[in-house]
Design goal:
The protein has 11 helices and 13 strands. By secondary structure, it is α/β, with parallel strands linked by helices. It has a 5-stranded mixed β-sheet with strand order 2-1-3-10-4, with helices on both faces. The chain has a 5-stranded mixed β-sheet with strand order 7-6-8-5-9, sandwiched between helices. Helix 10 runs parallel beside helix 11.
Length: 375
């Protein structure tokens, strides 16, 4: 509701007693009345004007209240993704550019709090999304920004992810102070990574190297450990380094053939409540359909394998030169001794791509057998 400004006549203040005698101080800056108006009618008008002024103040407060509250983790990368989401919302909906229209709400997850144990030992990747999802369900936030590779294959009840932002580079980056590539690392060198996917593929190709598994923390923390000599090298998602403007730290970039990426690596997903049509409308303008379909294909593969942080799984879907979908999937034993791979090609359409992901998962599950991941 819009309240128009009210023009007030000039008066001689000496003709009236202070309004504070009748009303609480601080509600309005000044009120005046015509000398010909009786005290009773003056007080009535004063009450009316005070009510209108109060409504105007309330309306002003409403316009300053956040229209969209974005829930996110507090790491520099998570915040960069939240701000990217904010900027895209403003770009698509100019009315959200008003100061205070969008609020960033930082939520600390269990995965952020416990850094001394491997993710697999404390419950898997859902630990980076659980508290944020709870805040969404409880209406403490309106949308949640997630790294899609952290999102479990199941979604909490009454939530949905209707939007994926354009995908960033899916490849992994090799970072080292002494060697130009993994192949140049001396035998016995230690590579830090908390990812079983990276560990298994690394050891499969370079069995002479060692892996420090519980190499956790945000990007800055891991780079600090590298500089302190805790490890001789590390592998990080290139997407995160790009979003943080930290690509100057990259020694070399691993090809897809050398290191198949994690399912949904480089993709940002934005969740909202299933019944929140307003947020769904805002997010519809941000969705990148090619990314959404690729992520759906990869997650169908992951779901079929019942993947978790205990399972070395990789998957990547993209368009080929003819516009079709090419999907590549991989499972490996944690020690890297055995790696199973498959691929699919078909139409770049939702139903076809989900089917490709499921079929690829079923094939590898059948090849792997029941004890494959117990090594």
């Amino acid at each position: 509701m819009e309240i128009a400004a009210v023009a007030l006549p000039t008066v001689n203040p000496a003709q009236f007693r202070p309004l504070s005698a009748n009303f609480a101080a601080g509600s309005v800056s000044a009120l005046g009345f015509s000398p010909s108006t009786s005290r009773k009618s003056s007080l009535a008008r004063a009450r009316t004007l005070l009510i209108r002024a109060s409504l105007a103040v309330e309306q002003q407060a409403e316009t300053k209240a956040a229209v969209i509250r974005i829930g996110t983790r507090g790491s520099p990368l998570a915040l960069a993704q939240a701000y990217e989401t904010r900027d895209k919302l403003i770009g698509s909906h100019p009315q959200l550019a008003e100061s205070g229209a969008i609020q960033i709400v930082v939520i600390k997850t269990t995965g952020d709090k416990i850094l001394t144990q491997p993710l697999a030992d404390i419950g898997g990747k859902g630990l980076f999304t659980k508290e944020i999802d709870e805040a969404l369900i409880n209406s403490d936030i309106d949308i949640a920004v997630h790294s899609m590779k952290d999102v479990p294959t199941y979604l909490p009840k009454n939530t949905m992810i209707p939007c994926n932002l354009p995908r960033e580079d899916v490849r992994d980056a090799f970072i080292c102070l002494t060697a130009a590539s993994l192949a140049e690392l001396p035998a016995g060198s230690t590579v830090g990574t908390a990812s079983l996917r990276r560990k298994s593929q690394l050891l499969n190709r370079y069995p002479s190297l060692k892996v420090l598994e519980n190499f956790r923390g945000n990007v800055q923390t891991r780079l600090k450990k590298l500089n302190e000599g805790v490890v001789q090298a590390t592998l990080l998602a290139l997407a995160g380094l790009k979003r943080l403007n930290m690509t100057e730290n990259v020694t070399s970039i691993l090809s897809i053939d050398d290191m198949l990426p994690a399912v949904a690596q480089g993709a940002i997903g934005i969740a909202c409540r299933s019944d929140d049509e307003k947020m769904a409308t805002y997010l519809a303008a941000l969705n990148h359909e090619d990314t959404r379909l690729a992520v759906a294909c990869e997650r169908a593969f992951l779901e079929k394998l019942d993947g978790s942080c205990r399972t070395p799984i990789a998957g990547y879907a993209c368009r080929d030169e003819d516009g079709n979908c090419i999907f590549r999937g991989l499972v490996a034993s944690p020690d890297g001794i055995q790696v199973l791979e498959t691929s699919r090609r078909g139409p770049y359409a939702f139903d076809d791509m989900v089917k490709m992901g499921k079929d690829a998962g079923e094939e590898l599950l059948s090849q792997a057998g029941p004890n494959f991941f117990d090594r």
